[in-house]
């Protein structure tokens, strides 16, 4: 490709409104352009990367035995009513009417379509297991699209769905997909981790996310420093302290704490460590038979953070987790939120394992402007239950039993689920077994955010000059950069000849034939992140050489012109 | 691919509601499944064909210098308001609102998006010409989707858009695209014709359609029997008869014709040929300054058909063409539609060239129940103008000047336009010229219906057993069909070994490892249209041979097992 016949579209300035570095660089390097909130056009350079990612994903899906199909973007609403998701799914599901006022959705995923299809097409256990994938445009009407294609509304996704007679077979395919995902991210050249994940609203039994590690990631991931253990912090178990709880040594004492509310204020006022305090958060219980929701207290050590995912899964707690209003707290406790504590608290009390391990702790006295010191469980506060409701923190023992927790940030680029029978049950998807009985199928689903991978790769691989693509997904393998071609016939001839040679060898090369200053050309190619720059200048041509600049290592070296092809030999 | 691990999904019965043979065969051969009206899931076999078509289209676009991008399916309404198409486009444009009640459309084409993009990204004449293409899902909310993917609502299209400073440059790119389209349809192995086309509502100056010839086609195409001339019948000019008009020999005579209305009835009653009569059709003129629409008469020879496209382009005729109601005709002429004729007709009269060549003709007398015989132009009917307003018919002289017209049916699979400045003007898409002036760009657009090509290929290539794919787009190059594999270890071993060998050679082969009777297997592979069946049976193995069945020619031959690979050598 010649730049003069290409849409390079690089930008010198960082565009306003691009918050994260991948979004900035995707705009500056001419990979995408914004069309409307959360909608992006993929320019030629970006599309080349996207297609390289897609190709690797497709090859590994096929290698793992999945077969490709293509389901429509637009799906009829009745399928979503059948599965129950028409009511369950929030406003991210874009619902539309056709010209006859029949309801449809723009597909955010395709569980309904594939389950209906398999239910119709597969009638015998002999045709199982089957694993069908597609690479298709999805639409999710995000309330606040942001970070470019990282959280766009229209995006490209690979989704696969497997169907099985038995859980054991599902687990085998799940493992195949797990392995295929590992190969995909290895081939992409990304630093990634599979992590144990919460199954969330999609339901099901087991789940892993695949994260590209990057400081800008939206998710916290808990690793063991001594094993392979990794889990989304939403899911990582905080173990109970191993030692027995200390004995009580202090008397329960009510202290006037005027204006003191937050844990920081309490700890400072009482001159104790936040670790020696507890905080009490008030949430709602599920509706009772009269539609009323009681208030429930969640008690954590002062320095710990509530894990909402863990909390909302508990019996007696409403899902999604809903915090009690000031009015609801006043009605139940007759004091403000900042003064609540577990001593004589007239509601159900759920205590985190670490908070339950404290002795002689400080807490709210359930009276505005007062706290207790020297509080102790059982002696002062009774009728509570102990659960894991906090986020793990660095230094916690790893739940795998080996080593301590460290926390890193990640960008979720893949997610695999053992879905179970949720959809197959709802949509009557089953087969006749060998013994002639009808049996509902069990199901797995496996997603990869193809367009998001492009952004995540940049978050992980860039410097102040631009993108540093992993070789497998660089838009071009190399760029030919001639110096002052307009003034040197020899430079022009050499560049043209090299371009022909590389093209004929099947190398994906960009020939920068613009009449631009060398500095402008170098800046563009470093921004775009082309791995190898082949710089052709008068001086080196005296020795029949060109200069090769490596974008990743920054190394420059001289190379004989007739050895350029050796750069592209598989190592 | 092994059938046991594949979704073959063939059907024995022809599904109800599938009217055309391609739709029937696409369902029966397991290429697609209907999800909702006009929405289809591409099953693995169909998707393989679709991707092969897409690949050929992409390769030829790139060879012709077009660069690939990817624009969103969902487009903001404001772009459509800017171009004017928000109001122009009918209900086929699916308009939707997002969660914030902002209006969007599902893109039926992408002129607006690309024109806005190029207007933003290209600032200098040095960056021109540029030709950008994409292969993307489109949506058109057809009022009556039918014929399967032939006229679906969601479909895959390749659309390209070129931008130029000057008409001459546009014409060069237009010719390149014309040539690329010819190469595409040649490579696809289809019998096709480029035909001169009407530019229709998309506007512009010159246009060609590419048609796959098939009796089931929806379009009539006029060819010359002696030259390359081909035009959509909408566009083919009906030349004026070359000879001078005959002299009048009869007197104008009013004849009572009670109950006689249609041309067939008139000709039978008066005992004349329909070619010696004229029919007069009443349509509306454009609105005048008071919003009123006058009635206009269109006069054709009795045996000719009105060409509405030609008529609605005439000055003095409303577009789209609108026939006058009975009430409007009564108000203007005071008689019924079946009794109108051009003698003393008190409205504007437009006469087709062939009707204007008649002498001594029969026509309505503008009085219910009466016709004239012996009518003659100028003597009896004055104040008319002559235009080309009919469809050509077989035997007409070709407008190219060589030979006579023959008419065949075609399926439109491609359409290229010289669009001109319609979009660039409306959306302010221009550059600075060499002399520093701002100049609006001129534009071409070039579409191919990728999914429709699959259906059109089947319409053109099938027999009573199923599909006869052109080799370039057959889903599989060959199928291995072992006879009674369960009972013969030798057959099984040979089949497995051959499968491994062909796979390793990169041949796209389907290994039919089902425990089915030979008849069932043959029927399936003939239905799917696999070009070569490699039949492995006990008897031929005695001679180290297999039987090769050619789907296109029907020929069977024996081949040594170790020569099978030679079948796949490029010829």
TrEMBL record, chains A, B:
Keyword terms of this UniProt record: Aminoacyl-tRNA synthetase, ATP-binding, Cytoplasm, Ligase, Nucleotide-binding, Protein biosynthesis
Membrane-spanning segments: none
CDD domains reported in the protein's UniProt record: ProRS-INS, ProRS_anticodon_short, ProRS_core_prok
GO cellular component: cytosol
InterPro entries named in the record: aa-tRNA-synt_IIb (IPR002314), aa-tRNA-synth_II (IPR006195), aa-tRNA-synth_II/BPL/LPL (IPR045864), Anticodon-bd (IPR004154), Anticodon-bd_dom_sf (IPR036621), Pro-tRNA-ligase_IIa (IPR002316), Pro-tRNA-synth_IIa_bac-type (IPR004500), Pro-tRNA-Synthase_IIa_type1 (IPR023717)
SUPFAM superfamilies documented for this protein: Class II aaRS ABD-related (SSF52954), Class II aaRS and biotin synthetases (SSF55681), YbaK/ProRS associated domain (SSF55826)
Pfam families cross-referenced by the UniProt entry: HGTP_anticodon, tRNA-synt_2b, tRNA_edit
PROSITE patterns, per database record: AA_TRNA_LIGASE_II
Protein name: Proline--tRNA ligase
